[in-house]
Amino acid sequence: MQAQEDVEPTVRIREVKKDRVNFVLGNVDLAFANSLRRVMMADIPTVAIDMVEIETNTTVLPDEFIAHRLGMIPLVSANCDEAIRYTRDCICLAGCSFCSMMLELKVACDDDNTMEVTSAHLEVVPFPEEEGSQDPGEELSKRGEWFGHPVGKNDPNVPPVLITKIRKGQELKIRCIAKKAAKEHAKFSPCSAISFEYDPYNKLRHTTWWYETNVEDEWPLSENAKEEEAPRDDEPFDFNAKPNKFYFEVETDGSLGPQEVVMKVRLRPACCS
Amino acid sequence: MPDGSRRSKPPTSFNTIEREKSFRNPPKDGSTYNILNEFVTPHIESFNALFDDSGLPAGDGDGRGLLSLALKDIGERVVFDGNERTDSESGPQGWGNRMRVWIDQATIARPMVPDKDRTAIERKVYPAEARERLTSYRGRMTIKICWTDISGQQHDMMKDCGLVPIMVRSVRCNLRSMSSADLVRHHEEPEEFGGYFVINGNERLIRYLILPRRNHVIALIRPSFSNRGPSYTPYAVQIRCVRPDQTSVTNTLHYLQNGSAMLRFTWRKQEYVIPIMLVLKALVGASDKEIFEGIMMHDYENTFLSDRVELLLRSFKMFTMHTGQQCLEYLGDKFRVILNLPEDWSNAAQGTWLLNKLVLVHVESARDKFRMLLFMLRKLYSTVSGENCADNPDSPQHQEVLLPGSLYGMIIKERMEEILNNIRGSISSDVRNGVAVDFNDKRYFTKVLSKVNFDIGAKLANFLATGNLVSPTGLDLQQASGFTIIAEKLNWQRYISHFRCIHRGAFFAELKTTTVRKLLPEAWGFLCPVHTPDGTPCGLLNHLSRTCRIVTSPLSVAHIPVLLAAHGMTQPFAPSVDGRKNVCVQLDGRIIGWARPKVAAELATYLRICKTEGKMDVPVDLEIGLVPESHGGQYPGLYLFSTKARMMRPVKYLANNCDDQVGPFEQVYMDIACTAEEIESNSSHVEHDPTNFLSILANLTPFSDFNQSPRNIYQCQMGKQTMGTPSTALQHRTDNKLYRLQTGQSPVVRPALHNTYAMDSFPNGTNAIVAVISYTGYDMEDAMILNKSAHERGFAYGTVYKSTTVDLKDMKGASKSSTPTLHFGVGKDVPNTEEKMHPCFEFIDLDGLPFIGARLNAGDIMAAYVDDTTGRTKFVKYKGDETAYIDQVRLLGSDAGDSELQKIHLTLRITRAPVIGDKFSSRHGQKGVCSQKWPAIDMPFSESGMQPDIIINPHAFPSRMTIGMLVESMAGKAGSMHGLAQDATPFKFTEEDTAINYFGEQLVASGYNYYGNEPMYSGITGQEFAADIYLGVVYYQRLRHMVLDKFQVRTTGPVDPVTRQPVKGRKRAGGIRFGEMERDALIAHGTSFLLQDRLMNCSDYSTAWVCRTCGSLISLGYEDVSLGEMVVGNTGSLKPTGPGGEYCRVCRAAAEHQEELERQAMATGQQLQRPQADVMVAISSQNVLKRASKGGELDVVAVPYIFRYLCAELASMGIAVSLEVR
């Protein structure tokens, strides 16, 4: 066996799009690859609406349901590390402009048609500054133009997220406070799905392909099989082999770019430490 | 099938846009789902039939409603004033003047605003108002009472009979024939179909009940009949005869050991038997020869029969009555006492009346009754001889349905009859008591009427609200309660099943034997074999099959006898018919002729062709029951049924490929092929659809033909317990409890009927990604693991709506008079200034009503009212223990809208996100409890990054064999990938063309494994599992059983005042009994500390003083002394006490007594003896908490309180208990 310790980890990006990246991670062990997956799913902080103050809600949906829907709306969280603090690390009492974003939703329908309240109605408003906020943080300057806005608000090609529908005479007046967090709730996860695969030919025999009559007919090979060499029929089973090529596709909900999601992960493979 | 060969085009679209459109703009002409209106027609049309303007076809009658027919049947009552003037009508008999009283007409109006209210512009009342105001939806009933005065002059008067509950969407309902758009405008669902009553805001309906088939003679062999009296045998024939007004009388003909027969009937819950000969003679004055020939019918060789007929004739000789007139007079004389007929009627008239009203009431003419009785006798003798078998009254062949409207009509009829009887009784008691009775005086009559209770409406409302039938006659029914049920809007499936359920009768529920619960082949197509609850009501509470109809409109069949006679039937009056060669032809229990068996079969075929093709005006709902000749089988004949309340179902008649309707009586003798492929040479019919025998709910189980049958039964139950979408008009509902799933979805895999029955308007579950894998162990024993992220994103999020009312009338301090002393509001005694704000203003406003959206915790204020007399404000508190939000506040006024606000209705919203312990189920009877919410990163995932929402254990499948669920999983996965609504109708696949292949091909086409497996990776290590995992999409239902409603846990809490042991009951924060067997388990297990904890520390732990000397627990006394002092008693000796002054009263008394005795003994020299306790108990020193160190003889021990109580109780019986402290 070749000594893996000598080989540097490799990343080969096969495709990058606005909301997804497809790459092949090589020369790392399984634990590292899975850790990467887990961290991308759960440990990348983003900003999401966490507290909702409802002033008026005359829609058909109950308060808590609207609050839940608001929480699920992805907000632009680029450069989260520097642009916003965790509230728990902030010196403020209950939230300030350094650790929170404030968004407002004020909609009333006076039209005869049913109106759709969407994430496009969410407006970022400046945080009411407290007296003598002595903390000269740099966070505000690190924020991008659309930081904290609902994803796609600046893009006419992205349809906004529907929150509720209202009819004539109904009104929604809501103030939301968005905070940075990572694990606490599914809404803070920037990823919608991460596909992860290794060993498309099952050469390592980690799994068994159960079949009724014919393996080839019943088990279509995945796309990633093209990357690897098909096993020959007479190839002996190498029981010492370990997986070292991992096929990833990371899809995000837009709050962070795929690049940021992958790059933010601060992991160090054992070989580099 | 991949080639699409056999499948008629499956519905592949979800019709989302169409549904959205019709939901936003319901159709203005007609309803969104017409089939829903069809399936409640038996309810509505049977109610409509009460009225003359029912809109039903007239049939053979004059189209009058049941109420008019009932009035005709009630007739008139006659009273006499006892003035024996010779010029009066009844002079000679000396009864006095004759007054006739009758009800001429009865009308029921639509629900209207009372006249007292002058301000309302819309005078109609709609059901939504009754529902929201928690009142009843009812219309005014009036009757016209007529009577004659002395001169025979007729007078009449309208009388108000109160407000009668009206069936929603019936002909008396203001929603009648409204379109969906109009319904929505009147705050109903667009799918509202009616069929129920609104009673105190609850929707209640009269459940279908199975009754014996009307006007058909059934043979019975019941051993219990022999207990009826001497010489009775188990043999009888029975017929339930129904009058045109749908009231019925059951006549039973019992066979006696001496060969004769007795006719049994019931009059006012009392049974009477008369010799059949008496009836036969009284009816037509038949001679013995006529009776003999009528029964024998030329079958003279049959000595069995002739012997019995001879005995029958002979047995009547002892009565020495020869003519019909004599018999009538005899009958009249005997029954005069109970019948309450006019006193001036002759015995013969009374006898005639009796035969008219109680013997074979379904036919009018005496000759028809006579013929029918002879037929019954023939059938009876034939049964006794064993030529034919007994009929099974549990078989749907001999059953029909009690329709809600018919029952309602019967009750109204009986009430009206009671009104007349009461008037009569009132006048005759006046006559008896010597009160001045003047038939010419209208004021007198009014006075009599004022004494009679006319409130039929209240009686009916009470009947509907309780389901209890208060009746002097019993209405020929076997039960007196359980007629009505609440139509619970738990979810749409449960709601619609209420209208299709049919009960066997409360009487049968108590029966030990299980034969009545059996699923009989005769029920095929009429009662669903799948949809019945398991447990106590199993097999008794059935549901109608999907296509089963109940005939509700009268048919016109008056021409049928002529038609049959023209085709070879012998007329009934033919002088000599050979009973050996002919079978009887009956139409609705009337003998219309005789025919040879071959001719009868031809007649049946002819009629069937006529009715299917609509020729000769033969109605398609006519049931043609041809019973062929057999040995030991059913009694042969051609029995035609055209009356209401029969079950019928559509099939196709193969002879002419026309649609036919068949009933359960005739179906037994037919060969109905299930599918077109199964037609054989002797098949007579073919089903329109092989799934027609299933009920609506059973039809909705996807791929139910793949499942083990009990699982489909379970699904029918669980579908009805699902937290779904109860209603789209939630804003206008006041149900006690509503469960709502916020994130309902349309299932990907659904049977074709899913759309037909508006299931998508009321979603009932969620499409979940389900992995079948044993992971983490938290999915053992039917538990399931929920993905935490799915949960956080709102998977299966539910809400419970609860109703409460605050009625100031029921509060303490409410005045009984009309002006209320309690008013909603907050008084001046409650501070509401800036600096001093009462906490109640967090929840309520100055008007005393809560804010919408206010969040209530246990004990929070939800309303306030001011008491005029005290001037103080009182608060109403929220009693539940869960956080609730005020969803709606309703101010409820009075009917006329003229009184002050005294009652409010609050809808509370309780959020119920799924928690560990909540119950979920797929649609295949696979229920499970959520055991963990597992973090998404630790969940297994597939190569494409899919993570299951739900993990279930593979062990759920082998023993339950719910292959349907596996197929659904595959189909759901393929459907999701291709965007198809998968058709899951049962019986669509065959052995050659399997579901697995069909969906497997689809899966391969989208890049998945043919059998739905996927390699999955452990979320924790990232390693591929050694086995591939079955992963797919299954529609999951969240059931309404939630831990939050059920958990019961306590350490300490409320205790019983007497025993100081924990109380029971969840509501009182009580405990669950830790009983003897549980105790045994802990002892056997050796967990003594736990035992101590459960039975002592957490139960009735107590400390007690025990006397070391005498061992008594109950002899504690206190001396009012300071620490450790000794008291000198009156005898001068020292008395020991403890540090607190405690001492043992027994020992001290004994010591004093001892001293006394010693002194005496000193004097007399006698031996001393200490008294012994009756019971000695040793207590371990472990339980001694504290030794009284400084003197005194009392120790403190820990004992269960109940032991102290026992000691006290024993002491009261003179038994002393002594504790030995070791």
Automatic annotation (TrEMBL), chain A:
Top-rank lineage group of the source organism: Eukaryota
Entry GO CC: RNA polymerase II, core complex
Domain DNA-directed RNA polymerase RpoA/D/Rpb3-type: 20-273
Molecular function GO labels: DNA binding; DNA-directed RNA polymerase activity; protein dimerization activity
InterPro entries in the record: DNA-dir_RNA_pol_30-40kDasu_CS (IPR001514), DNA-dir_RNA_pol_insert (IPR011262), DNA-dir_RNA_pol_RpoA/D/Rpb3 (IPR011263), RBP11-like (IPR036603), RNApol_insert_sf (IPR036643), Rpo3/RPB3_RNA_Pol_subunit (IPR050518)
Protein keywords: DNA-directed RNA polymerase, Transcription
Any one GO BP annotation for this protein: transcription by RNA polymerase II
PANTHER family: DNA-DIRECTED RNA POLYMERASE, DNA-DIRECTED RNA POLYMERASE II SUBUNIT RPB3
Protein name: DNA-directed RNA polymerase RpoA/D/Rpb3-type domain-containing protein
Organism: Hypholoma sublateritium (strain FD-334 SS-4)
TrEMBL record, chain B:
Residue ranges constituting the RNA polymerase beta subunit protrusion domain according to the UniProt record: 39-437
Catalyzed reactions: RNA(n) + a ribonucleoside 5'-triphosphate = RNA(n+1) + diphosphate
Location relative to the cell: Nucleus, Nucleolus
Keyword annotations: DNA-directed RNA polymerase, Metal-binding, Nucleotidyltransferase, Nucleus, Transcription, Transferase, Zinc, Zinc-finger
Domain of life per record: Eukaryota
CDD domains: RNA_pol_B_RPB2 (cd00653)
EC numbers for this chain: 2.7.7.6
Record domain DNA-directed RNA polymerase subunit 2 hybrid-binding: where: 698-1068
Coiled coil residues, start to end: none
Entry keyword annotation includes Cell cycle: no
UniProt feature, compositional bias: Basic and acidic residues: 17-27
Location of the DNA-directed RNA polymerase I subunit RPA2 domain: 592-649
Region (Disordered): 1-30
GO biological process: transcription elongation by RNA polymerase I
One GO cellular component term noted in the UniProt record for this chain: nucleolus
Cited Pfam families: RNA_pol_Rpa2_4, RNA_pol_Rpb2_1, RNA_pol_Rpb2_2, RNA_pol_Rpb2_3, RNA_pol_Rpb2_6, RNA_pol_Rpb2_7
Domain RNA polymerase Rpb2: 213-401, 486-550, 1070-1116
ATP-binding in keyword set: no
GO molecular function, one term: zinc ion binding
Purpose: DNA-dependent RNA polymerase catalyzes the transcription of DNA into RNA using the four ribonucleoside triphosphates as substrates.
Record-stated family: Belongs to the RNA polymerase beta chain family.
The name this protein goes by in its record: DNA-directed RNA polymerase subunit beta
Classification of source organism: Eukaryota, Fungi, Dikarya, Basidiomycota, Agaricomycotina
